[in-house]
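Entry 12.
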Amino acid sequence: MNRLTGAVTITLTIILLLLGLVFVYSASSYSAQVYYGNEYYFLFKQIIGVLLGVVALIIMSFLDYNKLKRFKWWFAGLGFVLLAIVFIPGVGIENYGAKRWIGIGSFTIQSSEIAKFCFVIFAAIHLSQHYDKVKTFKGILPVVLVGSLFCALILLEPNMSVTICCGVVLVSMLFVGGIKFKHMAFLLIPALVLVPLLIIIEPYRLDRLMAFINPWASPQGEGYQLIQSLFSIGSGGLFGVGLFASRQKYLFLPFAESDFIFSIITEEIGIVGAGFVLLLFLALIICGIKIAKSAKDRFGSYLAAGITSLIAIQVLVNVAVVTGAIPPTGLPLPFISAGSSSIIVLMAAVGVLVNIHRSGVKAK
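Predicted 3D structure (tokens):
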């Protein structure tokens, strides 16, 4: 099975990407026709992202991942620059009150998607190079500082969901690296205190929290999106209303093709179909864990663990949001939600996983 893990990883990724193309079209065809005069608008953009992602996957699967070690601080610097540049007028693009994108001609790049991957690589390099010092606070300090800086810049965009995702990845990397419990507690306690403060000081975050607690208190306001998402999921039942037959996609559910695409999936193919999609993600995560465990070196193990945790966290947060398990916040469903930046970065990350697996098999 270990020798087949790489092939299974690629196969699962391809299946998820194909499902993504189907449901991006289904969820967006009506809104794309209304707003852009082309029902295939989002589908075409997704196909371009997938094709570029395939190129990224191929390159990263054959590029020796150990060569990444040479660029440890370059990755930290790249992530910082990408996150900071969105605040430059004329470069950063603002949508829905947030500056999260960099404009390059007619294309946009969501800088945080790349920065997350940069941080995982940086953390994996540092922790593997200083594994004998991880038990000391000084040994983990560079990872904590870079991760905290990235989180702070993402929070300023503002993007609470990606901030939380990046923070959890930071904790996951430190845990895999072997951090002491007392050091983990020293980092987590202030963070847990900070989260409610960040919610209180920003009215829109507090409104979202109140909408999560009782969405019916503001059915036309902050509670609207969650209510429509629950309508979508509830109407799907066990086996769904049928592929391409969603009713919520007719401008009832905002961001149906991106952050809330799992709601459309559940509506069209039911709880059974949505459960199958989650099983595909679970299988992919298990493959990532296997690759991390069988890697030939510490760096490969940490890098595979970081990539796997990044995918797992995004899936958990996205599904929790659309089902009303946690307050509404925007985070794409990996490989499926519309968004070229996310697709390309995630496929590059899968390429790295395959590379680590291949190197581990050769070493044996």
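Annotation: Residues 261-294 form the longest helix (34 residues). The chain has a mean pLDDT of 87.
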